[in-house]
Amino acid sequence: MESGLGSNRNERHWIFKDDSWFSQFRNGSNPWMARYAYALIFLVSNLLAWAVRDYGHNAFPEMEKLKNCQGGRGCLGAEGVLRVSLGCFAFCFVMFLSTAGNSRMYNCRDSWHSGWWSAKIGLWIALTVTSFLVPTFIVQIYGEIAHFGAGVFLLVQLVSVISFITWLNDCCQSEKTAERCHIHVMLLATAAYIICIFGIIMMYIWYAPEPSCLLNIFFITWTLVLLQLMTSASLHPKINSGFLTPGLMGLYVVFICWCAIRSEPAGESCNRKAEASNKTDWLTIISFIVALLAMVIATFSTGIDSQCFQFSKKEARTEDAVPYGYGFFHFVFATGAMYFAMLLIGWNTHHTIKRWTIDVGWTSTWVRIVNEWLAVCVYLWMLVAPVILKWRQTSESA
Question: Which segments does the entry list as coiled coil (predicted)?
Answer without folding.
Answer: none
